[in-house]
Amino acid sequence: MTAERIDGKAFAAGLRARVAEQVAAFTAAAGRKPALAVVLVGEDPASQVYVRNKHRAAEEAGFESIEIRLPADTGQADLLAEVARLNADPGVDGILVQLPLPEQIASQAVILAIDPDKDVDGFHPVNVGRLGLGTPGFVPCTPRGCMMLLRDRLGDLSGLHAVVVGRSNIVGKPMAQLLLAANATVTIAHSRTRSLPVLCRTADILVAAVGRPEMIQGDWIKPGATVIDVGVNRVPNPDDPQKTRLVGDVHYDSAVQRAGAITPVPGGVGPMTIAVLLANTLDAACRRAGLQVPDAA
């Protein structure tokens, strides 16, 4: 048996197309475009790529894309003042401060400063609480994207055993909350979990978000399980030591022999993150305008 490849790139393209249609409807109804403001502090190369991709995707979907670039020596007070300005701007629907931030700035202080109703990253404690209570709020983009892929592949998740390997605030914990809300039976594991391979073999759904290259081997996977690999790790390329290649947290070549379906790296979960950011921003705009929030999925 060879696993079905879950094509996150194709799903994300479809989601972005649906969001673009809904943005056009919003713009006609509200008389303005939904607006996303992205703040980048410093010149981290990876962050610059992410911000450029977000800006391009937002403009292609019909959003007003606001890009704010601040020097690397920006103080925390100055960044918080910029966030306060964006909070107060009625023309801004979503605010995203690109992480990581320079060492002189406390990331948590910045997250706390963002208006929860404009927090399209879903990192503010108010949105974390809303997720736990099952009330409307913003869900971090990567877990929400994973859930879209799972529902598309499996439909009803009720009663399935889901093992989430990873406990980060950005992926692992919100992923577990979403799976619980979908009536799955959820186990959260991590790198220090005892007998982790044995536990993983019990999973109908295995979500790998531990941040260790190819840690999860094929023989850890229950035959026929659905595997969502959130990991993005750069490792040396054996064919050219001067270059690197991207791998996930799952050893793909062995996992594909046992899983029923699996996301590749790259081309799996990664493309979903920006697509869901656009969906979250549209949701924010609709709520602020008193319009019905569309079903982006």
Automatic annotation (TrEMBL):
Entry keyword annotation includes Protein transport: no
Keyword terms of this UniProt record: Amino-acid biosynthesis, Histidine biosynthesis, Hydrolase, Methionine biosynthesis, Multifunctional enzyme, NADP, One-carbon metabolism, Oxidoreductase, Purine biosynthesis
This protein's name: Bifunctional protein FolD
Transmembrane segments: none
Keyword Amino-acid biosynthesis: yes
Annotated catalysed reactions: (6R)-5,10-methenyltetrahydrofolate + H2O = (6R)-10-formyltetrahydrofolate + H(+); (6R)-5,10-methylene-5,6,7,8-tetrahydrofolate + NADP(+) = (6R)-5,10-methenyltetrahydrofolate + NADPH
InterPro entries membership: Aminoacid_DH-like_N_sf, NAD(P)-bd_dom_sf, THF_DH/CycHdrlase, THF_DH/CycHdrlase_cat_dom, THF_DH/CycHdrlase_CS, THF_DH/CycHdrlase_NAD-bd_dom
Positions that bind NADP(+): G166, R167, S168, V232
Taxon lineage: Bacteria, Pseudomonadati, Pseudomonadota, Alphaproteobacteria, Rhodospirillales
Gene responsible for this protein: folD
SUPFAM superfamilies: Aminoacid dehydrogenase-like, N-terminal domain, NAD(P)-binding Rossmann-fold domains
Metabolic or biological pathway, per its Swiss-Prot or TrEMBL entry: One-carbon metabolism; tetrahydrofolate interconversion
GO molecular function, one term: methylenetetrahydrofolate dehydrogenase (NADP+) activity
EC code: 1.5.1.5, 3.5.4.9
Domain Tetrahydrofolate dehydrogenase/cyclohydrolase NAD(P)-binding, residue spans: 140-288
Pfam families, per the entry: THF_DHG_CYH, THF_DHG_CYH_C
Reported function: Catalyzes the oxidation of 5,10-methylenetetrahydrofolate to 5,10-methenyltetrahydrofolate and then the hydrolysis of 5,10-methenyltetrahydrofolate to 10-formyltetrahydrofolate.
CDD domains: NAD_bind_m-THF_DH_Cyclohyd
Oligomer status and interactors: Homodimer.
Top-level division of the source organism's lineage: Bacteria
Record-stated family: Belongs to the tetrahydrofolate dehydrogenase/cyclohydrolase family.
